[in-house]
Design a protein that fits this description.
- It is a single chain.
- By secondary structure, the protein is an alpha/beta fold.
- It has one domain: 3-Layer(aba) Sandwich (Rossmann fold).
- About 30% of the residues lie in helices and about 25% in strands.
- It has seven helices and ten strands.
- Strands 6-7-8-3-9-10 form a six-stranded mixed beta sheet, with helices on both faces. Strands 2-1-4-5 form a four-stranded antiparallel beta sheet, covered by helices on one side.
- The chain is globular, with a radius of gyration of 18 Å.
- The protein binds adenosine-5'-triphosphate (ATP) and magnesium ion.
- The site of magnesium ion (MG) has 4 residues, from helix 1.
Length: about 260
Protein backbone atom coordinates (compact mmCIF):
# COMPACT_ATOMS: atom_id res chain seq x y z
CA UNK A 1 0.00 0.00 0.00
CA UNK A 2 1.31 3.46 -0.89
CA UNK A 3 2.22 5.64 2.07
CA UNK A 4 0.83 9.19 2.01
CA UNK A 5 3.68 11.69 1.69
CA UNK A 6 2.28 15.15 2.18
CA UNK A 7 4.89 17.67 3.23
CA UNK A 8 2.51 20.48 4.11
CA UNK A 9 2.02 19.45 7.72
CA UNK A 10 -1.70 18.97 7.19
CA UNK A 11 -3.40 16.67 9.66
CA UNK A 12 -2.41 13.12 8.81
CA UNK A 13 -5.21 10.99 7.47
CA UNK A 14 -4.23 7.57 8.57
CA UNK A 15 -3.29 4.62 6.50
CA UNK A 16 -3.14 6.37 3.12
CA UNK A 17 -6.65 5.82 1.80
CA UNK A 18 -7.76 2.80 3.81
CA UNK A 19 -11.49 2.27 3.96
CA UNK A 20 -13.30 3.12 7.20
CA UNK A 21 -15.06 0.09 8.65
CA UNK A 22 -12.75 -2.52 7.12
CA UNK A 23 -11.30 -5.08 9.50
CA UNK A 24 -7.81 -4.14 10.71
CA UNK A 25 -7.33 -6.92 13.25
CA UNK A 26 -9.08 -10.26 13.41
CA UNK A 27 -8.71 -12.62 16.37
CA UNK A 28 -10.28 -16.07 16.31
CA UNK A 29 -10.35 -18.50 19.22
CA UNK A 30 -7.28 -16.98 20.82
CA UNK A 31 -6.12 -18.88 23.89
CA UNK A 32 -3.11 -17.82 25.94
CA UNK A 33 -2.17 -19.67 29.10
CA UNK A 34 0.56 -19.28 31.69
CA UNK A 35 1.89 -21.96 34.02
CA UNK A 36 0.62 -25.51 34.24
CA UNK A 37 -1.33 -27.89 36.46
CA UNK A 38 -2.82 -26.20 39.49
CA UNK A 39 -1.08 -22.91 38.65
CA UNK A 40 -2.46 -22.79 35.09
CA UNK A 41 -3.93 -19.38 34.22
CA UNK A 42 -6.07 -18.93 31.14
CA UNK A 43 -5.13 -15.31 30.53
CA UNK A 44 -7.07 -15.33 27.24
CA UNK A 45 -9.77 -17.94 27.02
CA UNK A 46 -11.05 -18.16 23.45
CA UNK A 47 -11.16 -14.59 22.18
CA UNK A 48 -13.01 -13.72 18.96
CA UNK A 49 -12.62 -10.07 18.06
CA UNK A 50 -12.65 -7.80 15.01
CA UNK A 51 -11.21 -4.30 15.25
CA UNK A 52 -12.43 -2.10 12.40
CA UNK A 53 -10.88 1.00 10.92
CA UNK A 54 -12.17 4.03 12.77
CA UNK A 55 -12.95 2.15 15.99
CA UNK A 56 -12.09 3.80 19.29
CA UNK A 57 -12.32 0.64 21.36
CA UNK A 58 -11.88 0.86 25.11
CA UNK A 59 -10.76 -2.30 26.82
CA UNK A 60 -11.89 -2.55 30.43
CA UNK A 61 -12.50 -5.07 33.19
CA UNK A 62 -11.00 -6.09 36.52
CA UNK A 63 -7.28 -6.35 37.14
CA UNK A 64 -6.00 -9.65 35.77
CA UNK A 65 -8.91 -10.07 33.34
CA UNK A 66 -6.57 -10.18 30.32
CA UNK A 67 -6.48 -6.65 28.88
CA UNK A 68 -2.70 -6.38 28.57
CA UNK A 69 -2.46 -9.93 27.20
CA UNK A 70 -5.08 -9.08 24.59
CA UNK A 71 -3.20 -5.94 23.52
CA UNK A 72 -0.04 -8.01 23.25
CA UNK A 73 -1.81 -10.47 20.96
CA UNK A 74 -3.26 -7.68 18.80
CA UNK A 75 0.22 -6.14 18.59
CA UNK A 76 1.87 -9.46 17.66
CA UNK A 77 4.11 -9.07 20.72
CA UNK A 78 3.60 -12.53 22.21
CA UNK A 79 3.02 -16.13 21.13
CA UNK A 80 -0.27 -17.94 21.75
CA UNK A 81 -1.46 -21.43 22.64
CA UNK A 82 -4.15 -21.70 19.96
CA UNK A 83 -6.26 -19.58 17.66
CA UNK A 84 -5.23 -16.98 15.11
CA UNK A 85 -4.34 -13.29 14.92
CA UNK A 86 -4.48 -11.47 11.60
CA UNK A 87 -3.40 -7.87 11.14
CA UNK A 88 -4.59 -6.33 7.88
CA UNK A 89 -5.18 -9.83 6.57
CA UNK A 90 -1.70 -11.09 7.45
CA UNK A 91 -1.59 -14.11 9.76
CA UNK A 92 0.91 -13.44 12.57
CA UNK A 93 1.65 -17.17 12.89
CA UNK A 94 3.06 -17.52 9.39
CA UNK A 95 5.19 -14.39 9.52
CA UNK A 96 8.88 -14.51 10.28
CA UNK A 97 10.21 -12.61 13.26
CA UNK A 98 11.48 -9.82 11.00
CA UNK A 99 8.17 -9.61 9.11
CA UNK A 100 6.40 -9.25 12.45
CA UNK A 101 8.71 -6.47 13.59
CA UNK A 102 8.28 -4.69 10.27
CA UNK A 103 4.51 -4.96 10.67
CA UNK A 104 4.75 -3.50 14.19
CA UNK A 105 7.04 -0.71 13.05
CA UNK A 106 5.09 0.29 9.95
CA UNK A 107 1.45 -0.41 10.80
CA UNK A 108 1.08 -0.26 14.59
CA UNK A 109 1.68 2.45 17.17
CA UNK A 110 2.20 1.65 20.86
CA UNK A 111 1.60 3.80 23.93
CA UNK A 112 2.26 2.32 27.36
CA UNK A 113 1.67 3.62 30.86
CA UNK A 114 5.35 4.30 31.51
CA UNK A 115 5.81 6.34 28.28
CA UNK A 116 8.95 4.41 27.22
CA UNK A 117 10.66 7.50 25.85
CA UNK A 118 14.36 7.25 25.13
CA UNK A 119 16.03 9.31 27.86
CA UNK A 120 19.03 10.47 25.81
CA UNK A 121 16.81 11.85 23.03
CA UNK A 122 14.87 15.12 23.13
CA UNK A 123 11.08 15.33 22.80
CA UNK A 124 11.45 16.07 19.09
CA UNK A 125 13.94 13.24 18.52
CA UNK A 126 11.74 10.79 20.39
CA UNK A 127 8.73 11.87 18.33
CA UNK A 128 10.50 11.35 14.99
CA UNK A 129 12.30 8.15 16.01
CA UNK A 130 9.97 5.58 14.42
CA UNK A 131 9.71 7.63 11.22
CA UNK A 132 13.50 7.67 11.04
CA UNK A 133 13.53 3.87 11.19
CA UNK A 134 10.94 3.87 8.43
CA UNK A 135 13.08 6.13 6.24
CA UNK A 136 10.60 9.03 6.14
CA UNK A 137 12.47 12.07 4.69
CA UNK A 138 13.62 14.69 7.20
CA UNK A 139 11.35 17.50 5.95
CA UNK A 140 8.34 15.25 6.14
CA UNK A 141 9.27 14.12 9.65
CA UNK A 142 9.65 17.71 10.77
CA UNK A 143 6.30 18.72 9.26
CA UNK A 144 4.40 15.88 10.89
CA UNK A 145 5.95 16.36 14.34
CA UNK A 146 5.45 20.13 14.19
CA UNK A 147 1.75 19.78 13.31
CA UNK A 148 1.11 17.16 15.99
CA UNK A 149 3.11 19.01 18.68
CA UNK A 150 0.96 22.06 18.00
CA UNK A 151 -2.17 20.01 18.29
CA UNK A 152 -1.32 18.36 21.61
CA UNK A 153 0.20 21.49 23.15
CA UNK A 154 3.90 20.55 23.06
CA UNK A 155 5.14 23.42 20.90
CA UNK A 156 8.21 24.98 22.53
CA UNK A 157 9.22 21.77 24.33
CA UNK A 158 10.96 20.19 21.30
CA UNK A 159 14.44 20.34 22.85
CA UNK A 160 13.54 19.09 26.32
CA UNK A 161 14.72 15.70 27.48
CA UNK A 162 12.17 13.34 29.06
CA UNK A 163 13.50 14.08 32.56
CA UNK A 164 12.73 17.76 31.97
CA UNK A 165 9.05 17.12 31.22
CA UNK A 166 6.01 16.26 33.35
CA UNK A 167 4.36 12.84 33.08
CA UNK A 168 1.54 14.27 30.99
CA UNK A 169 3.97 16.00 28.64
CA UNK A 170 5.98 12.80 28.22
CA UNK A 171 2.81 10.87 27.48
CA UNK A 172 1.90 13.43 24.80
CA UNK A 173 5.29 12.87 23.19
CA UNK A 174 4.58 9.14 23.27
CA UNK A 175 1.25 9.74 21.52
CA UNK A 176 2.90 11.87 18.85
CA UNK A 177 5.59 9.24 18.38
CA UNK A 178 2.88 6.60 17.91
CA UNK A 179 0.69 8.68 15.61
CA UNK A 180 3.22 10.50 13.41
CA UNK A 181 4.14 7.37 11.37
CA UNK A 182 0.41 7.08 10.52
CA UNK A 183 -0.15 3.59 11.81
CA UNK A 184 -3.20 1.54 10.90
CA UNK A 185 -3.84 1.03 14.60
CA UNK A 186 -2.74 2.57 17.90
CA UNK A 187 -2.58 0.29 20.93
CA UNK A 188 -2.49 1.96 24.32
CA UNK A 189 -2.19 0.23 27.69
CA UNK A 190 -3.41 2.45 30.53
CA UNK A 191 -1.87 5.59 29.04
CA UNK A 192 -3.30 7.79 31.81
CA UNK A 193 -2.39 5.55 34.74
CA UNK A 194 0.60 7.60 35.87
CA UNK A 195 -0.78 11.13 35.56
CA UNK A 196 -3.06 13.28 37.73
CA UNK A 197 -6.73 13.64 36.85
CA UNK A 198 -6.37 17.04 35.15
CA UNK A 199 -3.59 15.73 32.91
CA UNK A 200 -5.64 12.62 32.32
CA UNK A 201 -8.55 14.77 31.10
CA UNK A 202 -6.35 16.60 28.63
CA UNK A 203 -4.90 13.32 27.38
CA UNK A 204 -8.44 12.07 26.83
CA UNK A 205 -9.04 15.18 24.73
CA UNK A 206 -5.90 14.37 22.71
CA UNK A 207 -7.15 10.84 22.10
CA UNK A 208 -10.61 12.02 21.08
CA UNK A 209 -9.00 14.41 18.65
CA UNK A 210 -6.75 11.72 17.22
CA UNK A 211 -9.85 9.67 16.66
CA UNK A 212 -12.18 12.39 15.37
CA UNK A 213 -9.79 14.60 13.39
CA UNK A 214 -7.28 12.04 12.17
CA UNK A 215 -9.62 9.08 11.96
CA UNK A 216 -7.17 7.11 14.10
CA UNK A 217 -8.12 3.57 15.02
CA UNK A 218 -7.47 3.09 18.72
CA UNK A 219 -7.61 0.22 21.17
CA UNK A 220 -6.99 1.39 24.70
CA UNK A 221 -6.99 -0.47 27.99
CA UNK A 222 -7.97 1.56 31.02
CA UNK A 223 -9.33 1.50 34.56
CA UNK A 224 -10.51 5.10 34.20
CA UNK A 225 -14.31 5.19 34.09
CA UNK A 226 -14.33 8.57 32.37
CA UNK A 227 -12.32 7.16 29.47
CA UNK A 228 -14.56 4.11 29.23
CA UNK A 229 -17.44 6.34 28.17
CA UNK A 230 -15.38 8.21 25.55
CA UNK A 231 -14.87 5.33 23.15
CA UNK A 232 -17.15 4.31 20.31
CA UNK A 233 -17.00 0.79 21.60
CA UNK A 234 -16.57 -0.75 25.05
CA UNK A 235 -15.03 -4.20 25.38
CA UNK A 236 -15.40 -5.58 28.88
CA UNK A 237 -13.24 -8.53 29.91
CA UNK A 238 -13.52 -11.01 32.75
CA UNK A 239 -11.35 -14.08 33.35
CA UNK A 240 -9.82 -13.99 29.89
CA UNK A 241 -13.13 -13.66 28.07
CA UNK A 242 -15.00 -10.80 26.44
CA UNK A 243 -18.28 -10.49 28.34
CA UNK A 244 -19.54 -7.30 26.67
CA UNK A 245 -18.71 -5.65 23.35
CA UNK A 246 -20.88 -2.73 22.32
CA UNK A 247 -21.77 0.92 22.89
CA UNK A 248 -20.55 2.17 26.29
CA UNK A 249 -23.97 3.71 26.96
CA UNK A 250 -25.67 0.32 26.99
CA UNK A 251 -23.32 -1.38 29.41
CA UNK A 252 -24.75 -1.81 32.90
CA UNK A 253 -22.44 -4.16 34.75
CA UNK A 254 -19.74 -1.62 35.76
CA UNK A 255 -17.58 -3.47 38.28
N1 LIG B 1 4.17 -13.30 32.11
C1 LIG B 1 3.19 -13.83 32.83
N2 LIG B 1 3.39 -14.95 33.58
C2 LIG B 1 2.39 -15.52 34.28
N3 LIG B 1 1.14 -15.03 34.33
C3 LIG B 1 0.87 -13.92 33.62
C4 LIG B 1 1.88 -13.26 32.84
N4 LIG B 1 1.32 -12.19 32.23
C5 LIG B 1 0.02 -12.17 32.63
N5 LIG B 1 -0.24 -13.20 33.46
C6 LIG B 1 -1.56 -13.52 34.04
O1 LIG B 1 -2.54 -13.46 33.03
C7 LIG B 1 -3.74 -12.86 33.53
C8 LIG B 1 -4.09 -11.67 32.67
O2 LIG B 1 -3.12 -10.67 32.89
P1 LIG B 1 -3.17 -9.23 32.22
O3 LIG B 1 -1.89 -8.58 32.51
O4 LIG B 1 -3.57 -9.36 30.80
O5 LIG B 1 -4.37 -8.53 33.03
P2 LIG B 1 -4.91 -7.04 32.94
O6 LIG B 1 -6.37 -7.14 32.64
O7 LIG B 1 -4.07 -6.26 32.00
O8 LIG B 1 -4.73 -6.53 34.44
P3 LIG B 1 -4.37 -5.04 34.97
O9 LIG B 1 -5.67 -4.28 34.89
O10 LIG B 1 -3.96 -5.28 36.39
O11 LIG B 1 -3.28 -4.47 34.13
C9 LIG B 1 -3.48 -12.55 34.99
O12 LIG B 1 -4.00 -13.61 35.76
C10 LIG B 1 -1.97 -12.49 35.08
O13 LIG B 1 -1.53 -12.84 36.36
MG1 LIG C 1 -2.77 -4.64 32.24
Amino acid sequence: MAEATTTDGEPAQQGGGDEPGEVVVELRGVVKTFGEGVTLVRALDGIDLDIRRGDFAVLAGPSGSGKTCLLQQIGCLDDLDSGSVKVEGQDAAVMSRSERSKLRRDRLGFVFQNYNLITVLTAYENAEYVMMLQGVPVAERRARVKALFEEVGLTGLEDRFPTQMSGGQQQRVAFVRALAPRPALILADEPTANVDSRTSDSLIEVMRELHEVHGATLVMATHDHRIMRQGTRLIWMRDGQIVYDGPPGEFEDWE
